[in-house]
């Protein structure tokens, strides 16, 4: 999704495939049929149901924000230098706002992202992730600012996203505190901007790229190794929320070639599962 994915142009991908004649796994390219997209969409049924219905999902969200609250309390109990005001950085999609109704709709229609994303985003009706609103209000109460760094498009999504956050009563839902995507999906320059003026206590997200460049564009094994290497940061500076529907974890399966056809995605998933 635009909020997370760095989509390569489909034209680029088509050219690449036609030039090499190879698919990303080195196998012959799969040509999509009319049933591939609905089949791909159907594979999201269980993960979508889990995010929609599982008490365990809600519990994990509360756990994440409870950890975040502990970290804020911990930082505020230290001797405070007054050089910079304190801040927390949060992602938006599947971190503070839930897009489960959008993903349910994709399954119903046999479609895949980004179909209908812009329309959904501009409806500004996404609900809050369990625990998110309470935590961010608590942060404000303790004098900690909130910055929202998201890969929603700044042109298509800024007003709608502010409206959505305001509607849900999220604090700091204004232009100064929303750093959406203009060109690059790399969030590091936006994190750096916040760090210039604030001391960032913690970062909260559902995607490893919400935390550090160290996880970016890495194949699956290296990505997992980077997580293990940074293990002491999770639950402290990095607070992660569960998202089994989408994310860079999925992109890593396709070597981040987001323009890959539905047929090829189905094939790669099956191949990796069989390994
Ligand atoms: Mg997200």
Automatic annotation (TrEMBL):
Listed InterPro entries: Acid_phosphat_B-like (IPR005519), HAD-like_sf (IPR036412), HAD_sf (IPR023214), Lipo_e_P4 (IPR006423)
Q: Where along the sequence do coiled-coil regions lie?
A: none
Alphabetized, the UniProt keywords read:
Lipoprotein, Signal
Q: Which GO terms describe its cellular component?
A: cell outer membrane
Gene3D superfamilies linked to this entry: HAD superfamily/HAD-like
What Pfam families is this protein classified in?
Answer: Acid_phosphat_B
Where does the secretion signal sit in this chain?
1-23
**Which protein, by its recorded name, is this?**
5'-nucleotidase, lipoprotein e(P4) family
**Record organism:** Zooshikella ganghwensis
